[in-house]
Amino acid sequence: MKNTNTLSAQEVVAHLRRALRAEITITAEERSAPYKGETSYKVGDWRIGVFYYEGRLDYCDRVSAPNGRAGGYADWADSNGDGNPVSLLSTEEALALEQIFNLAH
Length: 105
Hints:
Elements: H1 9-20, E1 26-33, E2 36-43, E3 46-53, E4 56-64, E5 70-72, H2 73-77, H3 85-88, H4 91-103
Antiparallel strand pairs: 1-2, 2-3, 3-4, 4-5
């Protein structure tokens, strides 16, 4: 039985696409090191932690919504092929999101 408190990768992708369409704002919360490690953003009213590898957006590590629902890397890895939200974006979407995240700093 699926935990209904877990945000699916598809739900996170839909939220990220809202940011790509400028329907919601993105602000940086913290960054471990420039272009390396995990960085946290506020995307609309959600908190999203992404991981950078060699200066590139690699994967989404964790997400929490204000209603208490959350999801993380392990949840999406075990989701029967749903995959990580970043990998579900098109190449163009991922590059555009990376640019928006970089501008948020």
